[in-house]
Amino acid sequence: MDQIGEPESTPTLEQIREQFEAWRQGRKKRSAIPEELWQSAVNLRQDHSISKVPSTLGLNHAVLKHRVGAYGINHSASKKLGNCLFGLFWYFRFALSLGLLCWVFSQI
């Protein structure tokens, strides 16, 4: 029975891998990967690591990473936050050290 109004489930990594295999079996030599398959690979990046997707699908890691950036998907927000917090940690550590150093010299 057909359910109306239910959202379509997103394809799994295994389903997309099968689509890539089917395309590879029927393609002409050196033909470009269809945009729909690239979009599916990029969408998988939301649920899988940037290394798992290309290795499973037989894609070039650098090309997939570039396409993830080209589609405007930002998966590095937590990395940026981590870098910011790391920078703040070192800034305050330096400021604390400098303050402690000033205090020591003021006691002499």
Would you give an account of this structure?
With 108 residues, this protein is an all-alpha fold. It folds into 2 domains: 67 residues, no CATH class; 32 residues. It is built from 5 helices and no strands. Helix 1 runs antiparallel to helix 2. The N and C termini lie far apart (87 Å). The model has no long low-confidence stretch (mean pLDDT 79).
β-strand percent reads under 5%
Order of helices and strands: HHHHH
Oligomer: single chain
Give the overall form. Answer: rod-shaped
CA gyration radius, whole angstroms = 24 Å
User: What proportion of the residues is helical, as a percent range?
Assistant: 55-70%
The biggest beta sheet is recorded as:
none
* Average pLDDT number: 79
Number of helices: 5
Low-confidence segments, given as residue ranges, are none
The total of beta strands comes to: 0
Number of domain modules: 2
Instruction: Please report the distance between the alpha carbons of the first and last residues.
Output: 87 Å
Instruction: Label the structural class.
Output: mainly alpha
SSE layout:
Blueprint (H helix, E strand, L loop, with lengths): L12 H14 L8 H10 L7 H6 L3 H10 L6 H30 L2
Which descriptors apply to this entry?
108 residues; mainly alpha; 65% helix; 0% strand
